[in-house]
Inverse folding.
């Protein structure tokens, strides 16, 4: 029982969400840089997932890295934190669906998540990592109180979360 | 209390939508020339050409493979391609070429050496279809590898994924 209480406290702790904000934000900024610098490479990656029609995958491939970069920056800065968490978590869910479809097909794909030129990779590892990142996003959405964020610095009203202990 | 929470959630979703929309707009605008070039590529407008694809056998295919210049194109359906294909080959069923223009094709110079293949034997029309379509698109050096995947695989030549 003690472990359960500790876990609950840990998950709802405001510093946990600050830490996760930094991690998730950094992961997305990092992953966007390679894609932004090599858009043609990333179009090939999106195409290799074989899900979107070609024209759509071109638009998706040039737009996605910028969404990653900007919401990653917002998340770290703590500006529109919960909205950025929604954006990043939704993207991770879309990735999860795309990965699952290809795992089901038995395709040997490179994830193309961080390095658009990589030739092969372990999709299962990507799958697990994706779920882990989704959990982080959900924690931020539900428990972020605006600590260490630019928006709290200017408005001075952090979000109140009712104490989870009865 | 319930009302403010609803409003708050609504606001969060609106801002999330705005973030996605504005960032996507930046992304598309930053790459507008690339997007234009790919979407309006010549792939869609065929030229007429009397050329025929030359048929090649396993030995010739291997020679061109070793030369490293030729691009192998797998004309079978993507599922079959995923289960195994000639090393370095790209997947392009002929039907797909009618609907869209894959990047690998857009970037391919018209002079490049192309080798199409499929299941092999007489019941394999896909690679011949594909070769014809590529020739119509203006490719000058298209070869149809008649033995196809079974011949290549049983010869033990390099494949992807490696076993």
């Amino acid at each position: 029982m003690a472990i359960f209480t500790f876990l609950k406290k840990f998950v709802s702790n405001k510093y946990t969400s600050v830490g996760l904000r930094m991690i998730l934000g950094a992961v997305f900024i990092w992953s966007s840089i390679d894609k932004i610098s090599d858009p043609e490479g990333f179009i090939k990656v999106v195409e290799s997932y074989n899900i979107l029609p070609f024209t759509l995958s071109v638009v998706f491939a040039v737009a996605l890295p910028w969404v990653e970069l900007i919401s990653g920056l917002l998340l770290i800065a703590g500006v529109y934190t919960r909205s950025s968490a929604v954006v990043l978590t939704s993207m991770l869910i879309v990735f999860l669906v795309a990965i699952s479809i290809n795992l089901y097909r038995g395709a040997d794909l490179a994830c193309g998540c961080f390095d658009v030129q990589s030739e092969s990779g372990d999709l299962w590892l990507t799958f697990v990592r994706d779920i882990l990142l989704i959990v982080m996003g959900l924690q931020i959405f539900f428990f972020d109180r605006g600590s260490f964020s630019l928006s709290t610095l200017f408005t001075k009203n952090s979000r109140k979360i009712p104490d989870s202990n009865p | 209390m319930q009302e403010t929470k609803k409003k708050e959630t609504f606001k969060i979703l609106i801002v999330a939508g705005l973030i996605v929309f504005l960032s996507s707009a930046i992304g598309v605008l930053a790459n507008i020339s690339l997007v234009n070039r790919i979407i309006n590529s010549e792939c869609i407008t065929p030229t007429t050409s009397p050329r025929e694809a030359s048929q090649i056998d396993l030995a010739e295919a291997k020679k061109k493979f070793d030369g490293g210049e030729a691009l192998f194109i797998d004309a079978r359906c993507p599922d079959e391609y995923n289960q195994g294909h000639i090393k370095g080959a790209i997947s392009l069923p002929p039907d797909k070429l009618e609907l869209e223009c894959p990047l690998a094709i857009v970037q391919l110079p018209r002079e490049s050496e192309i080798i199409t293949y499929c299941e092999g034997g007489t019941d394999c029309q896909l690679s011949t279809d594909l070769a014809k379509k590529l020739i119509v698109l203006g490719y000058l050096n298209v070869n149809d590898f008649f033995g196809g995947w079974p011949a290549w695989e049983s010869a033990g030549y390099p494949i992807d994924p490696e076993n």
